[in-house]
Q: What sequence folds into this?
């Protein structure tokens, strides 16, 4: 079976509660990895690449995550970050 690498972008914390900063992304990635054909792209590596692509960026938002996960840069990521169900 073909393995798919997934990069989880940073969630925007609108709760005002700092306890949620950076806690959902790893849990979400771990949950996705429960599927035998999914592996998570390293978030540390993604943030490193994002800093090179967009110096000063403080968040790995969806557009930046898509750029980091482009197939040219990381062929194992397929066609990038999929945030919506394909039709």
A:
């Amino acid at each position: 079976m073909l393995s798919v690498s997934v990069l989880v972008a940073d969630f925007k914390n609108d709760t005002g509660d700092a306890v949620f900063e950076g806690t959902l992304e790893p849990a979400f990635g771990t949950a996705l990895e429960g599927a035998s054909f999914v592996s998570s792209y390293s978030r540390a590596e993604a943030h490193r690449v994002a800093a090179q692509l967009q110096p000063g960026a403080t968040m790995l938002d969806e557009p930046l995550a898509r750029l980091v996960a482009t197939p040219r840069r990381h062929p194992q990521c397929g066609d990038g970050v999929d945030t919506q169900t394909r039709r």
Summary: Residues 6 and 82 are 8 Å apart (CA to CA). The helical segments are 24-32, 43-53, 62-68. The chain has one domain: 4-77.
